[in-house]
From TrEMBL:
CDD domains linked to this entry: MPN_like
JAB domain segment(s): 15-116
Protein's name in the database: M67 family peptidase
Annotated Pfam families: Prok-JAB
This protein's UniProt keywords: Hydrolase, Metal-binding, Metalloprotease, Protease, Zinc
GO biological process: proteolysis
GO molecular function, one term: zinc ion binding
Amino acid sequence: MHLQSKQQCVITPETRRLLVTHLYRVFPEEGCGALLGSRTEDGWIIDHFQPIRNTASNPQHKFTLDPTGWITSSFNPRLLGIFHTHPTSSPEPSAEDLLQLQLFGEMVPLYLIASRTTIDGEPDAQIGAYTVHRQPNGLFTLEPLTLA
């Protein structure tokens, strides 16, 4: 059972536009990147998206952050999270996502997943936001987070 966090995540309009553009640009492959911003009393504000090349051997069904891009982003003090897309499924964590999370869960508090949708006939994205939590067994998991 997932408990809804009382904290929220705000994505600036320009950053949301960049996320949607990236989602459609890389389709049918999964896109990925780093989310930058700041922590607030009530949650997080994401104000920048840094795309990172997906180097997975099967990029239509998996993402692997390019090591060079990830290393560069991981040293940014404003790093908040990871973003990736689900080209043909809902923006909910898959078993593969939770497996990948174990590689970088210690480094980020946020995890966003986007899927394609339309609003008034225009390309848009459905975005799922999650916070990263360590379970008692040491494994990382994701809990739903409100997008404001």
